[in-house]
Amino acid sequence: MADIGLMHYLMLAAALFCCGIFVMMTKRNAIGILIGVELVLNSVNINFIAFDRYRLIHGLDGQIAALFVILLAAAEAAVAVAICMNLYKNLNTIDVDRGDALHG
Amino acid sequence: MFEQFWIPTVTDLTRFAPELTLVATLVALLVAPLIMGRSAKTAGWIALLGTAATILATLRVGGSVHAEGISGLARPAAAGMLILDNLTVYFKIVLMLFLAGVTILWFIGSAEKEQHGEEFFVLLVGSALGMVLMTATLNLLMIVIAIELASLPSYAIVAFNKRNRTAAEASLKYVIFGGVSAAIMLYGVSLLYGLYHTLNVADIAARAVVHLNTGHNSAIICIALFCFFAGVAFKIAAVPFHFWCPDAFEGAQIEVTTWLSVSSKAAALVLLLRIVDAFSAATAAHSMVIQITVLSGLAWGLGIIAAVTCTWGNFAAYRQQNVKRMLAYSSIAHAGYMLMAAAIFVHPNAPADHSPIAAVLVYLLIYAFMNLGAFGIVAMVQWKTGGETVDAFNGLGRRAPWIAVPMVFCLVSLVGLPPFAGFIAKVWLLLALGEAGNTLCWTLIVVAVFNTLVSLFFYFRIVKAMFLVDDGRDAFTPPIAGTALVNVCGLILILFGVIFINQPRDIAKRYAANLFTPAVLKPHDRRATATSTTPPDLASMRTELADGSK
Fold first, then answer.
1. A3 vs chain B: nearest CA distance in angstroms?
2. Which candidate in A23, A68, A87, A92 is best for mutational testing of the B interface (most B CBs within 10 A)?
């Protein structure tokens, strides 16, 4: 069995990215779409950490970036879930295509 | 052990007084209710004072930028983390003037019935801080953080009126699109980091242009750049990332619509110009062949997006009944015009004197006044009559002549016809396109002129409703302060269109010059630093010293 290298991590991240995009495109539920966004953000983190681990010149840029991505994901989830709750109170649904007041 | 950490000096920090003032305003907005009790008007005054203080600080810093040149706040190895140059000074002044205008609009219409003024202004000023940071950085991580800092308060502020169903729906669409595009953008950033082991845009550009030319990794570079562009294009609302824009603008409270229509696009455009500048600076170091293939590829990409964006915006605006939504599509179209300038700027034959950037800066300034005026009048009609469709404007020329006339000024200016400032802005833009004078630019000129013609029809529907259709609705007196505000906007549009034609452009040219360009490490320097831990110049100095001591 070959050693696990950079390529394996990148393939994992790319697969996760595709899963995330697939979830975003197929889900009708707003929370479902947000889960897709989280999947993509996690693939970004895997990328950052893997590139940082396997690069020749050592530094912390990638790891710091990953920390910030985790932070951004948390902040965005907080705002997005609050907005979902607000929509639920008003429309009794969080299906993105049930909101039909705005179109054209 | 602290020597290895970089700590900014006081001089460095005073250069960033405007940003710090904005942060202080945010803190004051949060603390004031604890000391003085909750009052929406107090919050409004704090925001207005903070804005004024930021403008003063910017003017002060701007003087020293002119005297000393450009600078950045970061340790030398991470240049471009936080930039201070003429462009940031100009942008801060325009943005803060616009923020003051939006705050005044809020005072006129919403201050009386507002329950949560503190939260409103924290979100508004917070997004302004994010936009200021967006234009002042060339570091990918910093760009992402700044875009999020500008976006997250914007999502929340669109849904600020919690009981409004349209607002709730609009903000959900906004946050979903925003979240998706931010995630895709981050994936692009992670790929770029992996390819070049740095987050500095100038470094990345320097090596990406070579790779794009030789075809080495070019597929993955294109994917990464496209993913990255998705995030920026979302903020500009360029087609095909524009879907949030009309919904968010229609659903949001009108002050918020006014704010988002100019600021988020302006910040993203300036950011794009900065990135594009890094790419064209990177190619300038190479031979003609590299320049032409890489840059014209980028230029055509941007140019096509610009042309599609403004055509789409104008045609979609044509069908709208809701004036806010119509102006939202018009703002998409105007973003398209400004993107054209970015496209020529990157082109190999682009004029060397940064005139495309100056054209965008003039356009932004004048566009801010046009939108403040137009949205201010729509706001007053809505506050007084409750309607925001084209019908609500029927007979406005008789019902409220003092706001109908400036509305004509703003609309004609938005079309881009003389004798108003919008015409001058468009002329400078088309002249900048003409100066470059290649196939792409001539195509874009044709597209822009054609679009001006199309836009004439939908803007004049409002003019027609105001002066030619009268179904006997009641006359009303708009708020005096609001009437004054929109008339000042109208007056400024005439003055810039007739008397001070050259001044905005001269000012913009001065501010567009001298863009911050961080020193790019050459690939062989990097390899040298990789093998020996000390930088090469230091190492050679040490050997010289050692030779001398022998």
1. 20
2. A87
Per-residue pLDDT at B417? 86
Task: Give average pLDDT by consecutive 10-residue segment, chain B, 550 residues.
Answer: 67 86 95 88 93 94 72 64 87 94 91 85 95 92 94 94 88 92 94 89 86 81 90 90 90 92 93 87 70 75 91 90 91 92 71 77 92 93 87 88 92 90 90 81 90 91 89 84 93 90 82 69 43 38 39
Neighboring chain A residues of B247 at a CB cutoff of 8 Å: 102
Helix, strand or coil, per DSSP, at residue B200: strand
CA-to-CA distance for B45 and B48, rounded, in angstroms?
A: 5
Q: How distant is the alpha carbon of residue B254 from its chain centre?
A: 19
CB contact under 8 A, A84 and B187: no
The domain limits of chain A are 6-91
Question: A90 contacts in B (CB within 8 Å)?
Answer: 163-165, 168-169
Strand pairing report for B71-72 and B83-84:
antiparallel
Q: What is the DSSP letter of B326?
A: H
Q: Does A35 touch chain B (CB under 8 A)?
A: no
Give the per-residue pLDDT at B528: 38
Angle between helices B254-284 and B244-251 (to 10 degrees): 150
pLDDT in tens, B235-291: 999 988 888 999 999 999 999 999 999 999 999 999 998 888 888 777 777 766 666
The model's pLDDT over B427-457, given as tens digits with 9 standing for 90+, comes to: 988 888 888 777 888 889 999 999 999 999 8
The alpha-carbon gap from A16 to the nearest alpha carbon of chain B, in Å, equals: 11
**Chain B 309-328, CB below 8 Å of chain A: which residues?**
319-320, 325
Strand partners, B153: none
Phi, psi of B83 (to 5 degrees): -110, 145
Q: What is the ipTM of this complex?
A: 0.94
Stretch (H or E) spanning B30:
helix B17-36
Q: How far B323 CA sits from the closest chain A CA (Å)?
A: 13
**Interface probe, candidates B151, B154, B155, B187, chain A, greatest A C-beta count within 10 A:** B187
Q: Which residues from chain A sit within 8 angstroms of residue B189, using beta carbons?
A: 44, 65
Give the tens place of pLDDT for each residue, A22-79: 999 998 899 999 999 999 999 999 999 998 888 766 677 888 899 999 999 999 999 9
Question: Among residues of chain B, what percentage have pLDDT more than 90?
Answer: 45
Q: Tell me how close the Cα of A2 comes to any Cα of chain B, in angstroms.
A: 22
Residue with tokens 């905005």: B504
Query: How is B125-181 classified by DSSP, letter by letter?
Result: HHHHHHHHHHTT--BHHHHHHHHHHHHHHHHHHHT-STT-HHHHHHHHHHHHHHHHH
Q: Residue B490, exposed/middle/buried by CB under 10 A (0-12, 13-18, 19+)?
A: buried
Q: CB distance from A25 to chain B under 8 Å?
A: no
Smallest CA–CA distance from A89 into chain B, residue: B163
Give the Cα separation of B226 and B434 in Å (integer).
28
Q: What is the pLDDT of residue B97?
A: 94
For the domain covering A6-91, report its CATH number: 1.10.287.3510
Contact: B172, A24; criterion CB under 8 Å: no
B529 near A CB under 8 A: yes
